[in-house]
Amino acid sequence: MVVSIVIVILGALLIAASVLLRPKMPPKVANIVLIVAICIILIGGILLFFAWDQAKEDACNVYMALRYLEQDEGDASWYYLRRTPSDSFDSIAAGVAMEQARGNTGDAKDKLHELEDRAHLGQKDTVKQLQALLDGEQTLQETAAYLLEHIDLSKGLQEEMDRRFAIETGIAVGDVDLDELSDTLTLEQQVNTALTQKRYREAVEKAVELVDQRASAHNRLLLAECVAEALYQGDYLDGAVFDPDASAEDIANGTAAKERADLKKDIDSLAEQVNAAWDELEKLTDDASKQRAQGKLDVLLEQLEEVQNANNYLFGRRALTSIANIHSVEADVVRARLYFAMNQKDKAMDMLQETAGSLGVTLSFDSAMKEQFKTLKEAYEDKDPDDVRNQEFQDLMRTLLSPGALDTVGVIAGPITADMVQYIVRDALSSQ
Fold first, then answer.
1. Whether residue 20 sits in one domain with residue 42
2. Are residues 223 and 357 in the same domain?
3. Taking the mean position of all CA atoms in its chain, how far away is CA 75?
4. What is the reported pLDDT for 129?
5. Which domain does 423 fall in, by range?
6. 268 and 209 inside one domain
7. Which of 25, 92, 160, 414 could form a disulfide with 30 if both were Cys (CB 3.0 to 4.6 A apart)?
8. What is the largest CA-CA distance in the chain?
9. Residues 311 and 334 in one domain
10. Sign of the CA dihedral running 177, 164, 417, 306
11. CB 60 within 8 A of CB 158
12. DSSP state of 432
């Protein structure tokens, strides 16, 4: 933000100079200087707006982290703080309390020393509050409440974050009344609660209702994620989940049922061919004939596996189709998670690598997200193996895997995220 302000000031000085020195300059030169100055101010203004918007988002994440600390949820607090740069006073202060809540007293003390060095006169009381927490003279809840009271965030945004917290947890804070939340918010709350409690079929059902109310990119990506979670856990999905008002007859005659019936025929046919190929192989005695028969059997087994996957992951493929026209980093991560859930793990890793080098990441103003994808790329190049195995890297990957619509505790604490992080570690180490 400082750079943006300097650019604007530079532009203003050029304008002042062009006006004051106009009598001494040729008219054409004066006009060129004026135009350049106006362009500089416009560029600085645009950069300043984006920097301000990022600072506002960071403050919202700190606020959410503190709300979770009030509930003694250190890991959930970490989840939000990892989405903010660590150089703002509020984020460092929240980080002290978060590290203490997670049992990392040494890290908490280091952050407190950093805070002491940069605190101005009006912030000394915050340092004292945090020192009291580390000394056991104040509870985590009291410290979080104090930091919430002094955070630099507008009343309107605080109310918005309180509603978001209520949606995620079902806990009313601030002035939020759960009974007065709109239908859309209540549905999203039910989706997130179902994900947190690992009731994935219910999460899909509620997400379908959410999309029926408003088919936004956010809601469609959330539905695709719910499908991924359900498939990964082996929950059975059928047409009734996606069309609850349809009759049993309509479901039986629907496109999903027909497609599965056709796939079932292909599975049965290929299974018969596999059995016949096995029988043929067992009867052969010479090596050349055995080799040819084994090759035929391998092809049939591969075809059978593909058709079985097409049947098992029918709604996963449909979920991919439903978000095909959403072009964003968030959508790419959802696609990677769907591939992983459908047992196409290498394809999931390729998707993440492609996203890391995409324009969406390169041109993003989200500095935290850019750092996450940069770290992912480095892990596949020449990063120290110990740096890939450590907790910091794994925590960073958890954040990378839960952007936007997936920005919920239910997703980051879910089985897909946990298993993808471990797979990334193994895959990165094996590629070096």
1. yes
2. yes
3. 16
4. 92
5. 184-237+327-431
6. no
7. 25
8. 104
9. no
10. positive
11. no
12. -
